[in-house]
Amino acid sequence: MEEINLNYRYRYPRIKFRNGETKYGMLYGIYNKSLKKLEYYFADSTQIRKIVSPNKHVSYGWVKQFQNKVNPADILKVEYLN
C-alpha cells in the first residue's frame, strides 16, 4: 500500500469576528511580562505563510510585529475545518 503524507501546514481555522468579518488564521495568546496580563493577537493565514522562520510555533515575535491585537470578546465563532 502506498504511503499517504497529509499536509496540514496550510489549514487554518475559520474565525468569525463581531464586526462581520470571517478570516482564516490563528489566534495567539502571548503573556506580556511588563503589564502582567495575557494579550491576544490574530495572524491571517497569508501573513503566516509569508514569514520566513525555521520555528514559527516557538518564536512569537513575528506575531507582534503585525500589530493585530484582538479582544477575545470580539470573536464569535471558531470553526476547525477537516
Task: Describe the overall structure.
The protein has helices at 45-50, 61-65; strands at residues 14-17, 22-32, 37-44, 75-79. With 82 residues, the chain is mostly beta strands. It has a 4-stranded antiparallel beta sheet with strand order 3-2-1-4. Strand 2 and strand 3 form a beta hairpin. The model is unreliable at 4-10 (pLDDT under 50).
Radius of gyration: 15 Å
Order of helix and strand elements from N to C terminus? EEEHHE
Poorly predicted regions? 4-10
Q: From the helix content, strand content and strand pairing, which structural class follows?
A: mainly beta
**How are strands sequenced across the largest beta sheet?**
3-2-1-4
For the termini, the CA-CA separation is 24 Å
**What's the overall geometry?**
globular
Number of strands: 4
How much of the sequence lies in strands comes to 25-35%
Largest β sheet strand count, sense and barrel closure: 4 strands, antiparallel
The helix fraction, in percent, is 10-25%
Mean pLDDT across the residues is 76
Q: What is the count of helical runs?
A: 2
